[in-house]
Design goal:
alpha+beta, six-stranded antiparallel β-sheet, four-stranded mixed β-sheet, 25 helices, elongated
């Protein structure tokens, strides 16, 4: 009794010692007081959670928070959109998306009915918090979140409490729920229910479906239709996936029993959604029967059904071996776009539209080749590919693709075209010869292909033999003779290292071989930018993606440019370009398949093209770099970890250089390079006129390209052809 008196917050009077009887009125007062205390506590907890997570301003500006950046190519063609989910300073674990936002009028009525009836049937009658739903949620264990609260959880609160943080605990869950409880009425008051529903369906976390979000992605990825064309059966299937979208994914290694059980679960969730619609009389009995009896075939799955009508049942389900889900082009570039915006001093959250230097047609063609649809399909596991094409006039990136860097991940470390810092092998030789051309050497200078040493290291050619005769630099480059490269590099190593630092290559301090053999490391994009200087009068332009940037009101934003810097003199650049075309067209060429065909000549696609291949001596990397009067391109194939060798067939068939053939398919506005003053042709090669000695300018200061992340790569070996 003494304990009760201490705990009882409502003593009748100090003069009454016997316990007061519990009446219904007193029970009601106690219940109301308890509700009041809990409400005040929830409000306090929610206010604190909102302040801690910085959600006040983000919730107030929720539309801007969810409105993505529209992305266009250089001709205005749409490339997709970019979210702001990684902006704002706070760690947000929700993967960024490329899903297009569609208005409610662009979503089928069947989906909206299924979504609202299953997730929040009183959505249009409450203020963001459904108080009538809370008791049932507490008693049944069902979720008490409304659509508005789910929207907040998936956006401004993601990555702060228990959702997408990997942390668990009752306190975190209660704090998040309380924060949603506080913010939901605020968001409802500002935006209204239709706008909230629109934002919700465009940001639903179907993260298991290839890291996608929103109704557009779900409809296109799962059924290959637009959101407006979703049937009732398809809509119920998608809504049924929301509690566990990861169950939708299946791979070829999943056992048939497991795959079938997972699809049966999805089928049960679909039927549950349909029953909810029927119970609430939102669909007729005939509509229910028709949807329940439809044998759905999602694109990822191959499903066998038995029976029919009300007896329709799943017999087996496995992955569809013909399934492909190519992402929109901007998916693999979104982090690179953000990085370039931030480097230019622009907050991505201010941006409403960007125009990229990318050409949509070239991007699609390169993606088909790199991801296996073109000539190089069938790469084994562990072998990656990255390729980049730049416009020599200013360094704009025309196309950028990686074999693994866009399908299910936008991590820049997997965008191999930008991040695969691998030994450049013999693709370095044109840079070496250009440095030598500025010191009196020419294409016609001769060296003996014979035994050569670099310190204590014996230098060998890829063939393992020597010609045993004098060869010109032009022939040595076409044959990719290591002996000549090392001889030219001796005495010019300081100049070569300065050039390599200027173009963004990185020294491998663990490799003590000659830099003339390609020991420095670079990504395909950096190599392409270096080769572009040979067709740009010797100017080195830093590669970039952004052509124009506009804010949310459509106003253009100033975009600082680093400009181009002189790397070679114009005569040296022209002589190197001519030498590279000789590596394709001369009899000593080992990439003769890059010569223009008769049809290409007749159709006007026989533009001059120069190329150089390269392979490390452990065959963990194989390269090809090329340049035309308008474009430069680099392709790398290998193991990003530097552990496995490239399969023999990919190396022997010069697979990387076969990708270069795409350059002839691109439309060229610049079809020829004019020889600068002081250049003549002698013996079929462009060389300085007698008495003319071109001199290169001092190399620009060494720096790293803004787009290139620092990604450590495993050690590799020296280069061979």
């Amino acid at each position: 009794m003494k304990l009760w008196r201490r705990l009882n917050p409502w003593p009748r009077t100090p003069f009454v010692t016997r316990p007061a009887p519990w009446t219904w009125q007193r029970v009601l007062r106690a219940g109301l007081a308890t509700v009041g205390v809990l409400t005040l506590g929830t409000m306090a907890l929610g206010l604190g959670g909102a302040a801690y997570s910085g959600a006040w301003a983000r919730a107030w500006n929720l539309r801007a928070e969810l409105q993505p950046i529209e992305v266009q190519d250089r001709r205005g063609a749409p490339l997709g959109v970019i979210d702001h989910c990684r902006e704002g300073g706070a760690a947000n674990a929700v993967p960024c998306r490329e899903s297009l936002s569609v208005p409610l009028t662009g979503v089928s009525r069947s989906f909206l009915l299924a979504y609202v009836s299953k997730e929040d049937v009183r959505f249009f009658s409450h203020v963001g918090v459904d108080l009538g739903r809370l008791p049932r949620a507490l008693l049944s264990g069902a979720g008490g979140s409304t659509i508005t609260m789910q929207l907040l959880k998936n956006s401004v609160l993601a990555g702060h409490f228990d959702y997408d943080t990997g942390r668990r605990g009752v306190g975190l869950v209660m704090t998040r729920k309380a924060t949603e409880f506080v913010l939901a009425p605020l968001v409802t008051a500002k935006y209204g229910r239709r706008e909230i529903l629109s934002m919700s369906v465009n940001s639903l976390p179907w993260l298991g479906i290839g890291q996608r979000k929103g109704i557009y992605d779900a409809a296109r990825t799962v059924f290959g239709v637009d959101p407006a064309d979703l049937t009732l059966a398809q809509s119920a299937f998608l809504v049924g996936l929301l509690p566990a979208p990861g169950r939708y994914l299946v791979d070829g290694q999943t056992s048939p029993e497991t795959a079938t059980a997972r699809f049966r679960w999805m089928r049960q969730q679909q039927l549950l959604t349909l029953r909810i619609l029927r119970t609430r009389e939102l669909i007729t009995a005939d509509q229910y029967a028709e949807a329940a009896q439809t044998p759905l075939q999602p694109r990822l799955w191959r499903v066998e059904y038995a029976g029919g009508g009300s007896d329709l049942r799943v017999v087996s389900a496995t992955r569809n071996p013909d399934y492909r889900n190519d992402p929109e082009p901007v998916w693999a570039m979104q982090e690179l776009v953000r990085r370039e915006l931030r480097t230019g001093g622009i907050d991505p959250r201010r941006v409403g539209r960007v125009v990229l230097t990318v050409d949509a047609a070239a991007q699609a063609a390169l993606t088909r080749r790199v991801t296996g649809e073109g000539a190089t399909g069938g790469r084994p596991a562990g072998v990656a590919e990255g390729a980049a094409i730049v416009d020599v006039r200013g360094g704009g990136i025309v196309a950028l693709s990686s074999s693994t860097g866009g399908n299910e991940s936008s991590q820049p470390g997997r965008q191999w075209a930008v991040s695969a810092l691998r030994p450049v092998a013999s693709t370095v030789k044109p840079l070496l010869y250009s440095a030598a051309f500025g010191q009196g050497l020419t294409q016609q200078s001769t060296f003996t292909d014979g035994p050569t040493r670099y310190g204590a290291q014996a230098i060998r050619n890829n063939s393992g033999t020597f010609l045993g005769r004098a060869v010109t630099v032009r022939e040595a480059n076409a044959r990719s003779l290591n002996t000549v490269a090392v001889q030219v590099g001796l005495g010019r190593e300081a100049e070569l290292r300065a050039v390599l630092g200027s173009v963004g290559y990185r020294e491998d301090t663990a490799n003590r071989s000659s830099p003339a053999l390609g020991t420095y490391r670079a990504a395909p994009l950096t190599v392409a930018a270096a080769y572009a200087s040979f067709a740009n009068g010797g100017e080195l332009c830093r590669p970039h993606l952004l052509a124009e940037v506009y804010d949310r009101a459509g106003r253009p934003l100033a975009l600082p440019r680093s400009g181009c810097e002189a790397l070679w003199s114009a005569p040296v650049a022209y002589e190197t370009f001519d030498m590279l075309t000789g590596a394709v067209n001369d009899s000593a060429s080992h990439v003769q398949f890059l010569r223009p065909t008769l049809w290409q000549r007749l159709s006007g696609r026989g533009v001059p093209l120069g190329a150089k291949s390269g392979t490390t001596d452990d065959v963990r990397d194989t390269w090809c770099a090329a340049v035309t009067p308008q474009y430069a391109m680099a392709v790398w194939i290998g193991d990003p970890d530097g552990k496995a060798s490239v399969p023999t067939d990919l190396y022997r068939e010069q697979t990387a250089c076969r990708e270069i053939g795409l350059l002839r398919e691109l439309p060229h506005e610049v079809r020829e390079l004019s020889a600068p003053a002081g250049m003549v042709r002698r013996g079929g090669a462009a060389v300085p006129a007698p008495g003319v000695t071109p001199e290169n300018p001092a190399p620009p200061p060494a720096r790293t390209a803004a787009l290139t992340p620092v990604v450590p790569m495993s050690a590799g070996s020296v280069g061979t052809p």
